[in-house]
């Protein structure tokens, strides 16, 4: 009796177990096949790589006879962050699929990793992202024509020129702050009043004419007394010499008309510690007519978030940089110190400081636009472009020149 019950129970267990196993196998069938290429890099492949590296010439070998692993159309697209660095130093982008899901991207079938041995072979990655700061020697020795090689950079082209000629005709996609990149990632974002992202863009068009400055904004700017401020932390480098010289020139001219440039920071006459930037910004908002938004590095389209100090704090930016600022700022909202002579800049400043009616017109844009820092975790575009194979990709034959027209001087 007892034995029979035992047998029944065991049989029942087995049936239930097998049954559930059946479903398990059924459900994961696709996953099991996927695992064929998710298997960790074999020691064997590592050995092959080593051999190639030892014997190879100075170019990447495009393996045309490589048989692409069979993939399901529903598969994830695997993106390898090659040298860990990634579009921005302060990046908060996490590995896996999370970033795409959390951003509610239209396409989220992408998977980010910096584990080079996640798949059987480096050639299995759909895309590989390289940071501008990557030695040629460290590049993968093998690639396939199916793979998308992505050039990413958030550092300025003049500080990080690309020098090795192997990079010409090498990348399939550029992902940088330059506005003619395949995926643009400017450091600042321009929104219209409906919160739609509208710029910056290479062929930016601005509302014309803009509405008169509102009473609310007029109230915020009517008690200003001091001419100009500049918050600067990095002053004695070669790169920034030109802007330093220009600032000194402008400062002298201002002194002549009884106005001052207050420089806050290590090399200035005023103190504004980094951890108390809020206090300085509040001073800027209350007291200063103008702010010197001088870029550290002069490269095309390189406008850093420092421009947001004046824009978000009701001061007028006096800009100096490598960008065509009409892609970034509405006409009549700034003074371009690279296009005008120092005397012209100062006379525009004096004119505005003496005439509230002229000064207030610099703020008309508030009626139509808002500015913010580009969110660093916004990577929907990356997954989108990998899902749109018809997108015209720019394999740039003269890549080094595209990235920095004066690269030869810097290499
Ligand atoms: C590759 O190296 C060879 C010498 O090993 C050199 O002659 C050639 O110019 C190099 N090619 C490139 C594209 O750097
Ligand atoms: C994504 O959508 C969810 C639900 O609609 C929302 O709570 C969340 O804030 C959105 N995230 C972003 C980054 O827009
Ligand atoms: C990527 O660029 C390489 C080198 O120019 C090219 O051979 C390859 O076909 C391109 N791949 C795609 C998917 O466009
Ligand atoms: C600057 O950009 C504007 C608008 O995008 C364009 O009309 C103008 O020609 C550009 N100027 C230069 C010098 O490239
Ligand atoms: C420039 O802007 C117009 C609309 O204003 C658009 O149709 C066109 O595609 C843009 N060109 C480029 C190169 O972005
Ligand atoms: C210069 O400005 C100060 C205060 O801002 C004022 O007291 C002084 O009279 C001015 N001097 C001239 C020559 O305008
Ligand atoms: C790609 O470029 C070709 C020719 O330059 C053009 O005809 C085509 O419409 C472009 N495709 C897309 C998706 O932009």
Automatic annotation (TrEMBL):
| Main localization, broad class | Golgi
Spell out the family assignment given in the record's similarity comment: Belongs to the glycosyltransferase 10 family.
Provide the protein name.
Answer: Fucosyltransferase
Give EC number(s), comma-separated. Answer: 2.4.1.-
Q: Where is the Fucosyltransferase C-terminal domain?
A: 223-402
Compartments (UniProt record): Golgi apparatus, Golgi stack membrane
Among PANTHER family, the record links this protein to: ALPHA-(1,3)-FUCOSYLTRANSFERASE C-RELATED
Q: Where are the transmembrane segments?
A: 7-26
Membrane topology field: Single-pass type II membrane protein
Q: Which taxonomic lineage is given here?
A: Eukaryota, Metazoa, Ecdysozoa, Arthropoda, Hexapoda
Output the InterPro entries linked to this UniProt entry: Glyco_tran_10_C, Glyco_tran_10_N, Glyco_trans_10, GT10-like_C_sf
A cellular-component GO term for this protein:
Golgi cisterna membrane
Say which enzyme class the record assigns: transferase
Q: Give the Pfam families listed for this entry.
A: Glyco_tran_10_N (PF17039), Glyco_transf_10 (PF00852)
Q: In which pathway does it act?
A: Protein modification; protein glycosylation
Which keywords does this chain's UniProt record carry? Answer: Glycoprotein, Glycosyltransferase, Golgi apparatus, Membrane, Signal-anchor, Transferase, Transmembrane, Transmembrane helix
Q: Name one GO molecular function term.
A: fucosyltransferase activity
**Ranges for domain Fucosyltransferase N-terminal:** 77-186
Q: What is the organism of origin for this protein? A: Euphydryas editha
């Amino acid at each position: 009796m007892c034995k029979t019950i035992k047998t029944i129970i065991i049989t029942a267990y087995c049936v239930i177990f097998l049954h559930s196993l059946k479903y398990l196998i059924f459900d994961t069938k696709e996953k099991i096949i996927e695992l064929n290429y998710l298997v960790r890099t074999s020691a064997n492949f590592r050995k092959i790589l080593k051999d190639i590296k030892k014997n190879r010439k100075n170019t990447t070998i495009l393996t045309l006879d490589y048989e692409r692993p069979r993939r399901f159309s529903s598969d994830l697209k695997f993106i390898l962050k090659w040298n860990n660095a990634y579009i921005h130093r302060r990046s908060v982008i996490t590995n896996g699929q999370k970033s795409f899901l959390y951003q509610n991207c239209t396409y989220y079938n992408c998977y980010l990793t910096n584990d080079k041995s996640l798949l059987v072979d480096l050639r299995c990655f759909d895309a590989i992202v390289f940071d501008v700061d990557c030695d040629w020697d460290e590049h993968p020795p093998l690639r396939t024509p199916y793979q998308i090689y992505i050039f990413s950079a958030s550092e300025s082209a003049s500080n990080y020129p690309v020098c090795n000629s192997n990079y010409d005709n090498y990348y399939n996609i550029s992902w940088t702050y330059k506005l003619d990149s395949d995926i643009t990632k400017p450091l600042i974002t321009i929104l219209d009043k409906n919160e739609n992202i509208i710029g910056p863009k290479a062929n930016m068009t601005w509302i014309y004419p803009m509405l008169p400055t509102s009473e609310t904004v007029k109230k915020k700017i009517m008690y200003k007394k001091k001419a100009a401020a500049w918050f600067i932390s990095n002053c004695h480098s070669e790169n920034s010499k030109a802007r330093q010289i220009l600032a000194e020139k402008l400062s002298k001219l201002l002194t002549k008309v009884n106005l001052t440039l207050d420089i806050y920071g290590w090399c200035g006459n005023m103190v504004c510690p980094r951890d108390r930037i809020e206090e300085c910004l509040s001073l800027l908002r209350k007291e200063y007519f103008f702010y010197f938004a001088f870029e550290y590095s002069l490269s095309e389209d390189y406008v850093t978030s420092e421009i947001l100090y004046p824009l978000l704090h009701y001061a007028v930016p006096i800009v100096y940089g490598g960008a065509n600022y009409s892609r970034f700022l509405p006409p009549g909202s700034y003074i371009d110190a690279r296009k005008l002579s120092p005397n012209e800049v100062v006379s525009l400043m004096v004119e505005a400081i003496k005439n509230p009616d002229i000064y207030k017109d610099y703020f008309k844009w508030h009626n139509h636009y808002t500015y913010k820092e580009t969110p660093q975790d916004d990577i929907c575009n990356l997954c989108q472009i990998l899902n749109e194979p018809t997108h015209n990709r720019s394999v740039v034959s003269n890549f080094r020149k595209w990235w920095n027209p004066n690269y030869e001087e810097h290499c």
